[in-house]
Amino acid sequence: MNFLLKLILSALAVLILAKILPGVEVDNYVSALIVAAVLAVLNSIVKPLLVILTLPATILTLGLFLLVINAAIILLADYFIAGFNVGGWLWALIFSILLSIFQSILHSILKKDKN
């Protein structure tokens, strides 16, 4: 149940960011839910592999290369989902940063409601 609620909150964050950012488009609510699900799968499977493969670059940049990996994950989701469009690397980077901020705020609110 907790995973489903986090998925819905992530879809809400995707919808809000698509309205705010001109370089990101989501067709409808179902597409936002699919984007949230695909990002969850990509973050759990592909991202750890990319982090391991790019560990020297991540160490040299003091972790800032992880932002590039997050943008690559967003662009990969854009490739797989027809109702989700990102305008390029810069928009993917901005979207990934803001999505992380939104998700952390929404999930912290969720944790406060549990207590």
TrEMBL record:
Pfam families: Phage_holin_4_2. It comes from the Bacteria. The chain crosses the membrane at residues 28-46, 58-82, 88-110. The keyword Magnesium does not apply. InterPro entries: Phage_holin_4_2. Keywords: Membrane, Transmembrane, Transmembrane helix. This is Phage holin family protein.
